[in-house]
Amino acid sequence: MLSELKIENVAVIEKAEINFENGLNIMTGETGAGKSIVIDSINAVLGERTSKDLVRSGTTSAKITACFEDVSMSVKNALELMEIDCESDGTLIVSRTISADGRSSCRVNGQPVTVSMLRTLGRELVTICGQHDSQHLLQKETHIEYIDFLADIGEILSEYRNVYSSVVKKKKELNVFLKSLKDKEERREYLSFRIKEIEQAKIVPGEKEKLLEDRKKLQNREKLAKALYGAGVALNGDDNTPGCTQNLYTLRAFLNQLGEYNSEFEKYAKGIEKLSYILEECSSTVSSEVSALEGEELDVNYIEERLDVLYRLSKKYGETEEEILGMLEEYKAELDALEISDEKIAELENEVYFLSENLFDLAEEISDRRRKAALDFENDVVAELNYLDMPSAVFKVSFTQTAATSKGIDDVEFLISANKGQEPKPLSKIASGGELSRIMLAIKCVLSDLETADTMIFDEIDTGVSGRAAHKIAYKLKRVSEKRQAVCVTHLAQIAAASDNHLFIEKLTEDGRAYTKVRKLVDDERIYEIARIIGGDVITKSTVMSACELIDFANTP
Fold first, then answer.
1. How far apart are CA 253 and CA 328, in angstroms?
2. Which of these, 38, 88, 230, 432, has the minimum number of CB atoms within 10 Å of its CB?
């Protein structure tokens, strides 16, 4: 339970230490005294969103520290997940410092934690039911949360949401493929045409160079033949003249003879011998070329047609044969990828089908459990409302089946009829402020047995309520406080009279500056505060007697 709250430099509160006790803790005070600041401070130290405006004017930071005693096992489990040690006596100290520049730091038992971690822990420590919750109750979208809490479907709902997330993800992937299906068909036709065009050309690397050489040969065939003939005569001679090969042979023979008399000629003979070998090779090449030229059958039309094909393809796909063939491989790879995408579509469609089947099975089970919990919830809330002076109230939980969402296939809405003969209608259209406060309290009473937090805070749960209904609300709060610590901010004397620990919040002025003070009221102080709530600033014997009577009968149902 919450045992102590220390507040420093929060709005009008310069410094306050508030001690809470078991049972029903009541906070009262004039409007504007700072009761809401205390609740804001509790929210802040529990990790809820706050603002730098909370910092008292003229100071650099605000600090709130909360001490909890005998914390529950759920709190200890949360601490264990955060790797924070709990004191052996179950004491837990939580603090949060908020700087004027908006930054904040949080600690749990002296160890730094994030605001998110603090919020998670805070929800295990305290449940706050205030005006915000009453407005929350008017929002249809939140109603399903109450039913889910009662139905205790956290585990199966988590499984459902995992499957739902998978279905959404797979459908998105599938839609991407299906959306581009038309474009893919056009691309497939384009690629197939290009592949066919290149493959039919039967391109061979180096072919163009060979064709150009052949064309050059055809264009210069006569010149080439004449040159080869002349070279052959020069090398080998003809019927009238010996060629240079024969002349060199003769010259070498004479040089060898001269070398017998003068060694100088021997080196010339050797040089002529090497030259003769070169001439023999040249003669052989000339002869081969002549034979080739005579035997070669080149088709000028074929050459020109092939060169034209290669020219056209080079304009589309690449300058060289290698580049054209490279584009062919790229087109084939892309076409293969498109074929794979077709397989992927079929695969995704199967996955979506089987996941959707599983999703629907889970959704139906969740819906069944919700509807069963809703029936008990309706009866319990009506019973509470009857006690809270709404004897003709009809409370219904409406279910409408929807397409699957992250919450399942149920659209849930609370309907109420406060008066006899009226059809139940949505809360937002029927409930007045006082009725809404009682509905909220009735729901909290129904849920209280399931709440894990040891402390429940009711912030002005009595809005729009007076008389007999106020007395019954006080009784209900008293009953709640028998199971867990309850803290209530109120303006009603009937509720204040039921307190086990009455805290008075007052605004004072010192040195021209306002500040808030919180103190415990006992004995006559408590009686006079309840009398003030009944009669205002003028306290009479009658209002004091009324206050005493309220305290005497506070525990009477």
1. 64
2. 88
Report the candidate in 384, 416, 369 with the shortest Cα–Cα distance to residue 397: 416
The one-letter code for the residue type at 537 is: D
- pLDDT the model gives residue 557: 55
Mean pLDDT value of segment 414-437: 79
Contact at 8 Å (CB) between 233 and 243? yes
Do the Cβ atoms of 68 and 1 come closer than 8 Å? yes
Q: Cβ(121)–Cβ(334) under 8 Å?
A: no
Q: Is 167 left (phi over 0), alpha (psi -120 to 50) or beta?
A: alpha
Task: Between 95 and 266, name the one with better pLDDT.
Answer: 95
**Share above pLDDT 70 across residues of the chain, in percent, rounded to a whole number:** 91
166 to each of 190, 355, 400, how far by Cα in Å? Answer: 35, 8, 24
Mean pLDDT of 375-388: 90
H-state helical runs in 13-142 = 35-45, 73-81, 115-125, 131-138
Backbone angles phi, psi at 192, to 5 degrees: -60, -40
Strand 501-510 to 24-28 pairing: parallel
Tokens linked to 72: 């529950």
Cβ–Cβ under 8 Å, residues 70 and 90: yes
Amino acid at 415: L
CA angle 495, 501, 504 (to 5 degrees): 80
pTM of the predicted model as reported, rounded to 2 decimal places? 0.62
Instruction: For residues 18 and 96, give the distance between their C-alpha atoms in angstroms, rounded to a whole number.
Output: 16
Give residue 315's identity as a one-letter amino acid code: K
Element housing 415 (H / E)? strand 408-417
User: Would you report the helix, strand and coil content of the chain in percent, each value rounded to 5?
Assistant: 60, 20, 20
Burial of 270 (0-12, 13-18, 19+ CB in 10 A): middle
Reported as a single tens digit per residue, the pLDDT across 110-167 is 899 999 999 989 888 988 886 666 666 778 888 998 899 899 999 999 999 999 999 9
Q: Is 512 left (phi over 0), alpha (psi -120 to 50) or beta?
A: left
CA 321 vs CA 49, 213, 308, 480, 491: distances in Å: 69, 16, 13, 89, 93
CA–CA separation, 385 vs 391, rounded Å? 7
* CA atoms lying within 13 Å on the CB side of residue 555: 7
In terms of Cα–Cα distance, which of 450, 445, 453, 458 is closest to 486? Answer: 458
Could you tell me whether strands 455-459 and 126-129 are parallel, antiparallel, or unpaired per DSSP bridges? parallel
Indicate if the pLDDT at residue 439 is higher than 90.
no
> How does residue 552 score in pLDDT terms, banded at 50, 70 and 90?
confident
Question: Is pLDDT at 431 greater than 60 in this prediction?
Answer: no
- Tell how strand 455-459 and strand 111-113 pair up: unpaired
Give CA–CA dist 117/107, Å, rounded.
10
Please, are residues 9 and 511 in contact by the beta-carbon 8 Å criterion?
no
